[in-house]
Amino acid sequence: MLPEFSKVFKPAGRFAEVYGGLMVLGASGLLGYFGVHGTLMYFHGSRTAPADPFACAIGLAAGIGGGYVGLRLVFGWREDRALLPNIFLLVGGVTALVGAVWFVFLNASLRGSIGADLTISYLFGLVGVAALLLWWRRTHGGAPD
User: Which domain range does residue 112 map to?
Assistant: First the structure.
């Protein structure tokens, strides 16, 4: 690693891990709640946007995945391994890319313009590409993590 980045990428203290874990748990709990709520709405016949099956799946997956990462941070499970497992990076990266494309087409159908609010789609796409690049580096001969 380059010497100027060694100060930035030093291991976090235990307090920072617990604090970050609680923040991740809170966000994943909120997304999981909306995923479950939308699923229940869908099964009771609602066809509004919060009950869209794709949106519900995103909320449920983010709740479960974020809950796993948050609990690992709070309780210090498996500290000898990377925080995000390889399968988490692969599935999360592909999901973020699919979500970016879905958001572009959702904008086109709701607003009539495919170019409206592209910033959110760019961010989803960048997160997806970064996750897939990290997954590729880990599985195909990058530096060990």
Answer: 83-145
